[in-house]
Amino acid sequence: MYRRVIPGQYKLDIPFGVELRTDNRWVQLAGLMPWEKIDELYSAHFESENGQVSKPSRLAFGALYIQRKLSLTDDETVNQIRENPSMQFFCGFDAYTTEKPFDSSLMVHFRKRISSKVMKEITKEAFAAEARKAIDDESDDADSDSGSGAGNDSDSSDESEPKGTMLLDATCCPADIQYPTDVRLLNHARELTEQIIDGLHTQLAHPGYIKPRTYRETARQDYLSFAKRRKYTHSQLRTAIRQQLQYVRRNLDTITKQIELGAEMEALSRSHQQKLTTITELYRQQKLMHDERTHKVENRIVSISQPWLRPIVRGKANAPVEFGAKVSTARIGGFTFEIHQDFENFSEAKYLEDAAEEYKSIFGFYPKRIIGDKVYNTRDNRNYCKSKGIQLSGPRLGRKTEDIKKVEREQNYQDSRKRNAIEGDYGTGKRKYGLDLIMAKLPETTFTTISLGFFVKNADRLHRTLLAETV
Fold first, then answer.
1. Do 236 and 127 share a structural domain?
2. Which of 1, 99, 132, 250 has the fewest beta carbons closer than 10 A?
3. What would the mean pLDDT of 87-103 be, rounded to a whole number?
4. Vertex 201, ends 196 and 204: CA angle to 5°?
């Protein structure tokens, strides 16, 4: 068992006698986590008393936290917990053990149960109090700068008065997929349909049945002759797309005939069944774009294995188009709170009202000021902020004198400097917390992985803050 030996140390009942000090980072982080709230939200998945006993909520959340903190695979996460007494303490173990805590396949179930909605509630519970302190400090500084002293009770008596600053922005967290060109997607679809034809053929193999021809070798050579080109013309591209479309159409027709002859799709793997549905829609989209000579289509498929992904046009110099989930967040008191996640390329301006209402639900009052880029300055957002007494960054409408223009330019400059903080959050999250390449393969686990990345970043900030206060 873990037992307190002397102030600052914990003793584990293991042969070689390991001591866990209170300055151990995993011991300190364990004290920051809202374990009771996590257990309450996690236990909601297990209303029935039947079935196998579930793993403790602290172990499930602790494993996900360690994985995101150290950027580990599922297998390596299990090995690290197995070998590290400090991590076992963080995950709630009573004593050190050399046994595997669980099979690595359970990590997928942990990510499903601790969803992005659950992570939002955990984030509020863990960081709202510290964010509130930062808001109060900001309000006190603003009062002192404006000349209203602390003894002015009339200014601070109304708890519902707007206080604090909220920074809004959105980013894309790219998924782990190959860059989707039309020819490459169609070639992959052709190869998958050939596998499906082979699987259905085994059901129909009997005397007199001849396996349909797929021309796979010719199709492969056509694809390679185009893919190996360093440069190609528009005519060559259209020719390559047309060739692969013809091969995919022939294969889809063959699959239809095989089913008519008695082959059963249910005998194939669930993965092949799902991919056949995706390939059918991919062929329709690519054929439509090829015939109409366009590059746009609604709900465009960019990955056969993850058909929910969409192109997210960001307009960045290094990556004008990214493929992953788009995330809208708010930075409050130095901590990041998620507002909305979606695979569709939504306009973040639509969620300003949701962000303000979320702010009020957490702290009991609206923000005094909302700072975002110019996309948030819609007429609806202006009217909403005016009705709630919120100052929205950006120039006001109507004619202005030169003096007002000068003041607005200075204010816009100051706001842009403050916005650097949330841009820095995204940069840190992508460089250090794995938000630049999401390895999860399911839509719900993708959202969970993104939420965990922001949560770990917030926890590290809180940890640094408390360490600085104790020095």
1. no
2. 99
3. 91
4. 140
Asked which of 87, 114, 141 is the last residue of a domain, the reply is 114
Short-list 160, 37, 135, CA closest to 335: 135
Radius of gyration of the chain, Cα coordinates, nearest whole angstrom: 28
Helix, strand or coil, per DSSP, at residue 328 = strand
Phi and psi angles of residue 147, each rounded to the nearest 5 degrees, phi first: 95, 0
Q: Read off the pLDDT band of 210 (50, 70, 90).
A: confident
Whole-angstrom distance, CA of residue 398 vs CA of residue 324: 39
For the CA atoms of 206, 212, 213, 217, the dihedral, rounded to the nearest 10 degrees, stands at: -70
Identity at 400, one-letter amino acid code: K
Same domain, 379 and 425: yes
* Pure H helices in 230-269: 234-260
Residue 36 has pLDDT above 80, yes or no: yes
Strands 165-174 and 369-371: parallel
Look up residue 295 and give its amino acid. Answer: H
Task: State the CB neighbour count (10 A cutoff) for residue 404.
Answer: 13
In tens, the pLDDT along 77-87 reads 999 999 999 99
Provide the H-helix boundaries in 25-166: 25-32, 35-42, 57-70, 74-83, 85-90, 106-113, 116-145, 153-156
At 145-179, the pLDDT tens digits run: 665 544 444 444 567 889 999 999 999 999 999 99
User: Exposed, middle or buried by CB within 10 Å (0-12, 13-18, 19+), for 204?
Assistant: middle
Q: What is the mean pLDDT of residues 305-329?
A: 88
Q: Note whether residue 297 is domain-resident.
A: no
